[in-house]
């Protein structure tokens, strides 16, 4: 079974915010490349994993369809929150760094 995975505008804004933070805190050219790689990993991992097995990831709250995908990166990683809307559709609505308090 394959799921269509879409990002909400808020999720895209979160990814843009994460990228901007990485660029602002980059001290070297290597760090700039790392920022590009982080965003690539977030998008590609999300699309790959959620299109094939969205129920494999941890539940958030009482709903069985609201879940989080943990994406390891460097020494920490990112958390992507999503909802399985149907047997064919997954909606990603948030992304954050693991050290952030919560979604915006």
Describe the protein's architecture and organization:
The chain has 104 residues and is an alpha+beta fold. The chain contains 2 helices and 5 strands. The chain has helices at 9-25, 29-52; strands at residues 4-7, 58-59, 66-73, 76-84, 89-97. It has a 5-stranded mixed sheet. A hairpin with a 6-residue loop joins β2 (58-59) and β3 (66-73). α1 (9-25) packs antiparallel against α2 (29-52). The protein starts with a strand and ends in a 7-residue tail after the last strand. The mean pLDDT is 94.
Content-based structural category: alpha+beta
Total domain count? 1
- CATH classification, class level: Alpha Beta
Q: Determine the number of helices (DSSP H or I, runs of at least 4 residues).
A: 2
* Cα separation of the termini: 32 Å
In the sheet with the most strands, the strands line up as: 1-5-4-3-2
- Binned, the helix content reads 25-40%
Question: How would you sum up the major sheet?
Answer: 5 strands, mixed
Radius of gyration from CA coordinates = 14 Å
Mean pLDDT: 94
The CATH architecture term is 2-Layer Sandwich
- The CATH topology comes to YaeB-like fold
Q: Which regions have little confidence, pLDDT < 50, spanning 5+ residues?
A: none
Query: What name goes with the CATH superfamily?
Result: RelE-like
DSSP strand content = 25-35%
Shape: elongated
> What is the helix/strand order?
EHHEEEE
Count of beta strands: 5
């Amino acid at each position: 079974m394959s799921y269509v995975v879409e990002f909400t505008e808020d999720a895209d804004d979160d990814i843009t915010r994460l990228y901007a933070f990485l660029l602002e805190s980059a001290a070297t050219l290597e760090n700039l490349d790392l920022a590009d790689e982080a965003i690539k990993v977030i998008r590609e991992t999300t699309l790959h994993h959620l299109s094939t097995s969205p129920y494999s990831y941890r539940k958030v709250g009482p709903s069985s369809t609201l879940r989080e995908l943990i994406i390891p990166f460097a020494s920490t990683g990112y958390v992507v929150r999503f909802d399985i809307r149907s047997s064919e559709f997954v909606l990603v609505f948030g992304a954050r760094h693991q050290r952030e308090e919560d979604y915006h």
